[in-house]
Specification:
The protein is an alpha/beta fold. It is built from 14 helices and 17 strands. The longest helix has 18 residues.
């Protein structure tokens, strides 16, 4: 079968060999866990505990703050020590619930009790996913219960499971597919029960051939689940690119996947759905890849949400003193961390350490109009003209050029020989356009 893919994109150095064969290792929470109330797209969660309260593992400590929001649960038993502003991954201080771990690991009633899918209605499944606090674990953090509740479920004909993991260095989804394929399939079956006319497609890049074969074998007799092998290319895991690759359908920034009959969920999200639906477990832990040239022992760790990134790195064996930069996420769309003393949240994917900071060392020169940014853009935009508009503060022209369609994937910046920070320019421009629209 011909490999499925999208047009354009890039193929950066993968770096996955550092951790791809490292079996997931579970680590235990230490003394204090911190839970920011904003761990998802939408309204922050609202605390339902007070300072001094004792909480149990799996207990809801903050409820959804609106329709597009998600509750938060404690990964440990212990005492609420504070509800205060703490430094978070994005560099700002946000309201957090701070819990002192009593190391007793006492759980709420029913935690881990098995359930059968046959006895659950679609409404039951949505309610379970919502109360479990599950959000998109591919990085976006959109509340999964909302994503799985389109206006007309009968119009959804394709559920796409994103197993591409196209971001360099990251291998946590690969390990989940390798070690937990039956859980993934069960999670998919729970989702399919929400959409009576849908079939599921698992998309896996061809640099994970063993995962492709494993899941293909596991689903070969299931008429409602197929596995497609995708070409290894960045950003294959982008929602728009993935939909096009497996269905040929095109969407833009003003559309939802549901408008084209699709729902897209991540491999790790499938695992979280399995645990919530079949085992009555809320989202309280996350598989993270700890890797990079400066990390002493690259690995994949199952991490309690709320731990500090510094504690996670230590559990992985630490990093070289010569480390010059840590990223949360991969090198294409990740963010540089000014400190590791910030909590792991639901969308935390990795810690990647580097001995050299290629970005800060770059020297920008004038655009030479080579067109390499155009040949790489998966949205078929003209980055060099968009950049010219932004630099002249002509945001109207930026919009006319389709600038709001930019998905900030970084392909144009990666290919630019003049090292123009195109992606950063477009992020600024999009934020300015949105701000101006609110003022209007």
């Amino acid at each position: 079968m011909k490999l499925k893919t999208f047009k354009k994109g890039v193929h950066p150095f993968e770096g996955k060999e550092l951790s791809s064969e490292c079996v997931i290792r579970k680590i235990e929470a230490l003394d204090v866990l911190v839970y920011p109330l904003s761990q998802h797209i939408g309204a922050p969660a609202k605390p339902i505990v007070s300072v001094g309260d004792r909480v149990l593992k799996g207990q809801m400590i903050a409820e959804a703050g609106g329709f597009i929001s998600a509750p938060i649960h404690s990964a440990v038993s212990g005492t609420v020590k504070a509800i205060e502003k703490r430094l978070t991954l994005n560099g700002s201080k946000e309201e957090c619930i701070v819990i002192e771990n009593d190391k007793q690991d006492e759980t709420v009633d029913g935690f881990g009790e098995r359930r059968e899918l046959d006895g659950l209605s679609a409404e039951d499944i949505i309610g379970i996913i919502k109360s479990a606090g599950i959000v998109g674990l591919g990085g976006a953090g959109f509340p999964t219960s909302v994503k799985l509740s389109p206006k007309n479920p009968a119009d959804i004909d394709t559920v796409i499971i994103n197993g591409s993991e196209c971001e360099p260095y990251l291998t946590s989804d690969h390990r989940i597919m390798s070690e937990m394929p039956k859980k993934i399939v069960k999670g998919i079956k729970a989702v399919l029960k929400l959409f009576p006319n849908a079939k599921a497609i698992i998309g896996i890049e061809d640099n994970k051939e063993a995962d492709y074969k494993l899941l293909s074998e596991l689903t070969k007799t299931d008429e409602k689940i197929s596995v497609y092998e995708l070409k290894t290319k960045y950003p294959q895991g982008g929602e728009r690119q993935l939909i096009y690759a497996v269905t040929g359908r095109k969407i833009n920034s003003k559309m939802l996947p549901a408008d084209m009959g699709c729902v897209v969920i991540n491999i790790a999200t499938c695992r979280a759905i399995y645990e919530a639906v079949y085992k009555n477990m809320p989202l309280i832990h996350k598989v993270m890849t700890i890797t990079g040239e400066s990390v002493n022992s690259p690995c994949n760790l199952d991490v309690p949400i709320g731990m500090s990134h510094s504690e996670v790195l230590e559990a992985a064996g630490g990093a070289s003193e010569d480390t010059v930069k840590f990223l949360s996420g991969g090198p294409m769309m990740g963010i540089a961390m000014s400190t590791l003393d910030v909590p792991v949240v639901k969308t935390s994917a990795s810690i990647v350490g580097f001995l050299n900071d290629d970005v800060s060392a770059l020297k920008t020169s004038a655009c030479i109009h080579c067109g390499k940014c155009v040949s790489a853009c998966p949205e078929k935009l003209i980055p060099q003209m968009m950049a010219k508009a932004v630099k002249s503060n002509n945001f109207e022209q930026f919009e006319k050029l389709g600038g709001m369609e930019c998905m900030e994937c970084g392909c144009c910046t990666y290919k630019c020989p003049a090292k123009v920070p195109l992606t950063q320019l477009f992020k600024h421009a999009k934020a300015t356009v949105r701000s101006n629209a609110k003022k209007a």
